[in-house]
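Input:
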Amino acid sequence: MAVDHITQALWSATTAFKTYPSLSGDLEVDVAIVGAGITGISTAYSLVKAGKKVAVLEALKVGSGTTGSSTGNLYAPIDERLYTIASKHSEETMRAVATSRTAAIDFIEQRVLEFNIDCEFNRVPWYLFSEPGNDLMAQVGKEREAAEKAGLPVTGEAPASFPFKVESMANIAHQAQFNPLKYVQGLAAAIAGDNCLLFEGTKVMDVEDGEPCVVQTERGKVTAKQVIMATHSPKGIYAVHTAMEPYREYAMAVRLKGASPAGGVYWHVQQMQHYSVRPYSNEQGNFLLILGEAHKVGHKEHNEENFLKLEEYLKAHFDVDHIVYKWAAQNYKPADALPYIGTSPLQNNTYIATGFAADGLVYGTLSGMIISDIIAGKENEWAKLYDPTRFTPIASAPKFAKENIDVAFHLVKDFLFYGETDQLKEIRAGEGKTIEIDDEKLAAYRDEEGQLHVVSSICPHMGCVVHFNNAEKSWDCPCHGSRFSIEGEVLEGPAYHNLAKPKATNDTEE
Ligand SMILES: Cc1cc2nc3c(=O)[nH]c(=O)nc-3n(C[C@H](O)[C@H](O)[C@H](O)COP(=O)(O)OP(=O)(O)OC[C@H]3O[C@@H](n4cnc5c(N)ncnc54)[C@H](O)[C@@H]3O)c2cc1C
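Output:
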């Protein structure tokens, strides 16, 4: 199958980016927000409305992080299923999750109407379904029952034109989908001004919690009463890193030979996961998007396989003409199935919003609603539910233990089995390997032209060894999800600093 644009997300390839200046010099504001994804921009909107002066500091461009690489679906249920919340917490918690997420979708719709944001926002149904013959009926039935208990408008009926064979169905009306990048770009443009200073190309290098907080950037320092880490996973060392698992997930946008299915969020249950399918149309034509094949960051050797599996699935279910875009992006799954939104544990004036799994367009919006209320001194009915200082040993136990055994395993195993290839010349074109030369632990990649790119293989976040990702040509840390380019630059995740150049010290950030 032909591919037009490799590893580029549909949204960033087809949406015009507005440009904002970089910070130049020091600044004092009420609140500094690090990161201009859906979380940072939604929070900025609500804080400005509450009368605060805000600076948003973005390393790259507004919306260019995970928000611009998502699939743009907005729904009240969650990736891990509502029934998981009921079993890990309670039915009351499950209802509160559904109600708060519904309120966040309504918030997005209200902003679209308030600012007339052209982002193809549409109310559509959300479907979770299984096909005949794969024994997954029970899972769908359980979620339908959970959705009903959570007060969502759910039925077990599939519409007549449904594009898949169905054995079991949970069909929730009045969910939504949009172009997430156009939305965030539109909202940012609407709020930018004297009380909402937006800076792009402004990488934050350190945040010091205090009274005031001090945010150091490469281009000056920002002093603020409060700081919000809206960087998807908070930068630096935070307790929540030990309670989240980073996952890489794969997406594709294809053109079909025939007509697209009707608008809707189609979650097709598979063994151990689901594929998420949705149509999208803009002036460039009709696309069908698919998302799936998640795996823990840095835990897969042949990442290309994941794209191939998505392609096989699409070919089996649709008359695909060709792949137009394919890309991957990251999720952080929380140990107890609830995100961490609010004051950072052990800090006073730093706020975090993370652990969204694949549901963060809604949770990021909800974070803005909750954190802005806390800062403005207003009661928020959901603040306690998502409070990062909560301790839920029973709900978190299996995942918490697994995550930390995984980290310990990688710390030991990757150091023990280092350097099976001790010769740089053995590395073939397109291949990346961790090797040891003169007691120095290195990550070496040979590009298609035969040139070697060598950096330290020790993640500067907490000292784990990075693994090569052959689909995206990056070095990915299996412990907390930091990712680096083949030249060692931070791409995403909690690390502030780049992989060191060879012959440099390997100190961690602590
Ligand atoms: C493939 C995929 C599909 C998804 N689809 C959906 C979906 O359909 N629906 C849904 O609800 N959720 C979805 N999600 C989840 C959702 O996309 C994310 O949870 C959400 O976008 C996170 O938003 P954010 O603003 O917190 O983070 P981001 O959008 O990642 O924004 C963080 C920003 O911080 C900036 N930043 C990082 N470090 C620094 C620094 N040092 N200094 C300054 N700025 C910095 C980054 O450049 C970035 O712009 C999907 C996730 C994946 C991986």
